[in-house]
């Protein structure tokens, strides 16, 4: 397993359980698992679960399995399974041994089902889904026994074998546990553990036409893998009695402990594969890895680093209370990790032309600048000056607000790594838009303070003849609404979350960057000084061609009100 995970350890209730289990000798070592269903790309909520499960295994020198919960063949694909493996590795983790699949256990799961039938603890039921719902009761009313509940073990065994053999139509029969139709816990009201479904499975092909249900599969898979602590989100709390019931009623000698923690929710994002899938299939985004998506693949393409996501996961904490976080917490963690890691270069994204009237070729000098103020080992490069330079449009104000320290008519400002300049003249087009500034530089100020006056402002700039053009994709939040899937309309129903998509979430512009970035590899992260963090696009940026940058995050919290 990777040891790159250096985020400091913060205790939580799950660690306390593990500490006790190790101290009491209940376990000598721990085994956890991350059990995704390969029905979509992983999102930020999964990152929390990955960091928790793999992180615990690392800290306690135990092991963590990657196990695909592949029991819904219609929704699962090899593409999803591959992306999930790639994502776990990219986050800096590795699983113990081979990748595991619930489908590896289909034979054993089937054998345990026969065992339950023989013990009179499971029966084949012919109720239709509608009938089953009616028999189930609800929170205030107990359910009623299925009329098929009293079939003999021999009859059940025969029917179950014929289900497996493909004698019955899809959905016409199920295998159910015989627990208690009056249980206050609806999960214990004779839950279905097998259904008939003729669907091609990514691993087992057409071998099976019956598939086990999640609750039945999960606990047995955990036990077969000798998982010690099976961590899941709180919505499974009510399923725990079923998890335990199954393991207590089959001949398995090992009983993992299920522990629930609260699921992460991120404001302005969605943490549901189904809803993210909808954005993809409706072409609301360019794909699962669109940099605006809260998927790990999207965040990667956006330029978030594994360390940033791990730091965020650590800040989420682990508890049973609500875990709703602001996007700024995620962005803050990303920014913090990029601060020290990303080399700094200059880019002007919204240029205004500046002509330096007294520029003298061969006399006006350039300086070199470090790629990072605290990392001399990142190296330096020359920042060349020329008669025509670009500065950022919003670094000039014709009518400056109070306290303005940047450029203004008649005012002075320092060009980063270069001279102090003064704005002598403002040139406008016929509509009154500023199109050029004529400035003069003070030749005595290269690396020197101006004499007799203080110039406080420093702005970035780039030489027009030395700069190269880059495609720059400016990403903003995907939704305008903090909880896009939780807004109710006047009729009391949920409003379709796509209504809250931010129409301004992507702007593509041409910016000017230093020529040294042209040869950057895809996924190179930079700070554009004073502007933000940017990454060369993983797929569209070709070294040597016109660079393609994605904005990762600004330098300051853009979500702040
Ligand atoms: P989704 O609804 O997005 O499909 P899921 O829980 O059905 O989520 P799985 O593939 O079954 O997706 O999840 C794998 C693991 O990740 C599970 O253990 C699950 O509890 C955990 N997980 C999923 N979403 C979150 C979340 N928002 N916060 C923390 N853990 C999560
Ligand atoms: Mg699931």
Short description:
This protein has 561 residues and is of the alpha/beta class. It is built from twelve helices and 27 strands. The site of adenosine-5'-triphosphate has 15 residues, from helix 2 and strand 8.
Tell me what you see in this structure:
The protein starts with 12 loop residues before the first helix and ends in a 7-residue tail after the last strand. Helix 3 (78-90) links the parallel strand 2 and strand 3. The protein has 12 helices and 27 strands. The protein has 3 domains: 13-101 and 216-335, Rossmann fold (3-Layer(aba) Sandwich); 106-213, Alpha-Beta Complex (Glutamyl-tRNA Synthetase, domain 3); 347-466, Ribosomal Protein L25, Chain P. The strands form 7 sheets. Strands 12-25-26-27-23-24-13 form a 7-stranded mixed beta sheet, with helices on one face. Helix 7 crosses helix 8 (240-248) and helix 11 (306-316) crosses helix 12 (327-341). The chain is an alpha/beta fold. Adenosine-5'-triphosphate binds at residues 35-37, 45-46, 48-49, 69, 232-233, 263-264, 271-273.
């Amino acid at each position: 397993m990777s040891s790159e995970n250096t985020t400091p350890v913060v205790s939580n209730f799950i660690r306390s359980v593990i500490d006790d289990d190790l101290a009491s000798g209940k376990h000598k070592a721990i085994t956890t698992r991350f059990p995704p269903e390969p029905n979509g790309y992983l999102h930020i909520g999964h990152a929390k679960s990955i960091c928790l499960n793999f992180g615990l295994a690392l800290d306690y020198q135990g092991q963590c399995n990657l196990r695909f919960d592949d029991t819904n063949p219609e929704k699962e694909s090899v593409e999803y399974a591959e992306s999930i493996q790639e994502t776990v590795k990219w986050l800096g983790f590795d699983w113990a041994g081979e990748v595991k699949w619930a489908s590896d256990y289909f034979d054993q799961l089937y054998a345990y089902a026969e065992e339950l039938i023989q013990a009179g603890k499971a029966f084949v039921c012919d109720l239709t889904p509608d009938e089953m719902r009616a028999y189930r009761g609800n929170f205030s009313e107990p359910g009623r026994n299925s009329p098929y509940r009293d079939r003999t073990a021999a009859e059940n065994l025969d029917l179950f074998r014929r289900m497996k053999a493909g004698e019955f139509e899809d959905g016409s029969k199920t295998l159910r546990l015989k627990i208690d139709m009056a249980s206050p816990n609806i999960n214990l009201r004779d839950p279905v553990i097998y259904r008939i479904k003729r669907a091609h499975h990514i691993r087992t092909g057409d071998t099976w036409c019956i598939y086990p249900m999640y609750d039945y599969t999960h606990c047995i898979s955990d036990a077969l893998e000798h998982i010690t602590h099976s961590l899941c989100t709180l919505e499974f709390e009510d399923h725990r009695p079923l998890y335990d019931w199954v393991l207590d009623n089959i001949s398995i000698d090992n009983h993992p402990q299920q522990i629930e923690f609260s699921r992460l929710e991120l404001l302005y994002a969605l943490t549901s594969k189904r809803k993210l899938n909808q954005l993809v299939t409706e072409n609301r985004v360019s794909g699962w890895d669109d940099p605006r998506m809260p998927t790990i693949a999207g965040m990667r393409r956006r330029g978030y680093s594994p360390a940033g996501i791990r730091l965020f996961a650590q800040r989420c904490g682990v508890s049973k209370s609500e875990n709703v976080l602001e996007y700024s917490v995620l962005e803050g963690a990303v920014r913090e990790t990029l601060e020290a890691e990303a080399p700094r270069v200059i880019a002007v994204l919204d240029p205004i032309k500046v002509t330096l009237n007294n520029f003298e070729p061969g006399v006006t000098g350039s300086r070199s600048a470090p790629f990072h103020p605290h990392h001399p080992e990142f190296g330096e490069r020359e920042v060349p000056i020329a008669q025509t330079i670009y500065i950022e449009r919003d670094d000039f104000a014709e009518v400056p607000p109070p306290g303005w320290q940047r450029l203004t008519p008649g005012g002075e400002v320092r060009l980063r790594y270069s001279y102090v300049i003064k704005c002598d003249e403002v040139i406008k087009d016929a509509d009154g838009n500023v199109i050029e500034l004529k400035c003069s530089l003070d030749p005595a100020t290269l690396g020197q303070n101006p004499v007799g006056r203080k110039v406080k402002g420093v702005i970035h700039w780039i030489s027009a003849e030395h700069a190269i053009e880059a495609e720059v994709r400016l990403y903003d939040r995907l939704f305008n609404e903090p909880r896009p899937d939780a807004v109710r309309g006047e009729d009391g129903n949920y409003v379709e979350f796509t209504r809250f998509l931010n129409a301004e979430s992507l702007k593509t512009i041409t910016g000017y960057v230093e020529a040294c970035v042209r040869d950057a590899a895809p996924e190179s992260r930079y700070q554009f000084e004073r502007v933000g963090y940017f990454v060369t696009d993983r797929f569209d940026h070709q070294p040597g061609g016109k660079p393609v940058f994605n904005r990762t995050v600004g330098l300051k919290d853009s979500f702040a009100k």
